[in-house]
Amino acid sequence: MRVGVLMGGESSERSVSLRSGHAVCEAIDELGHEAIAIDPVSLHATLEALQSVDKVFIALHGSLGESGHIQGLLDWLKIPYTGSGLATSALCLNKRRTRQILAQHGFHYANWVVVDRQQSLQAIQSAADAIGYPLVVKPSSQGCSIGVSKVESPAQLEAAVMQAFEYDHDILLEAFISGREYTCGILGDTALPVVQIRSETFFDWTAKFGAQTATYHCPSDLDSDTERAIQQLSLSAFQALGCRGWGRLDVILGDDGQLYPIEMNTSPGMTQRSVYPMASREIGLDFPRTIEQILALATFDPV
């Protein structure tokens, strides 16, 4: 089988995507298939490369890869691909829409509001005051904690807002949730073991990929009941959003005992430090077999 591995692209997550893609290519080769690395920076070259593949593994992160655009192209070409389809991908990349859908299904969120570039700084400050400090500022449609800041006081708000607006027209202000962070992968209709995330600092891009102060632990520190609760929450969110194939939900277990969904990832990272393969190893799947299972679920939406 010839498998096209889409990686890189032009999003702010390009560097992480390239690492994921190269790891996936190595696994596909190890499985005895032929991996074709495709960096979609040129439409003509991408279309030409896709003509020769049987399936596509989407290792793109952020815009293009998780926005539904590449999924729509692959649907049109009738090439099976990994992960969720066009509509669900676009939905999950938009934090505002994701929260609106999950809230309708009874999921809990801390107080939050969306603001945009057209609003004055004074209006944004008023919105922040209504939420209270500390709060978190984040772009609506970015992953990997890009452009995300924890704001401890009004004096820090403007800089955080300006940084987030570098990545998106709409940004979220939300109450900071004191608690512990976890993430749970989904493979088909199965929730993988929960991974605990520990960070000496606020869990932003730097903690993940810069200074890498974050550490990941699987098995986690959870008791069995809470572990199952996070797995059920993740699987329910996956289904409520219309996801398919594979994905990963980030969750905070608040000090109040409440579970708060943070973000649904429809194209999780697959680097050496990524948590998804860490979790799959706990159920006996090494990295190549994890890729094999994900590829087996690849499909497309007829158009």
From TrEMBL:
Protein keywords = ATP-binding, Cell shape, Cell wall biogenesis/degradation, Cytoplasm, Ligase, Magnesium, Manganese, Metal-binding, Nucleotide-binding, Peptidoglycan synthesis
- Quote the cofactor binding remark: Binds 2 magnesium or manganese ions per subunit.
Q: Which residues bind Mg(2+) 1?
A: D250, E263
Determine if Transport is one of this entry's keywords. Answer: no
Recorded GO cellular component terms are:
cytosol
Name the enzyme's class: ligase
Localization in the cell: Cytoplasm
- Name of protein: D-alanine--D-alanine ligase
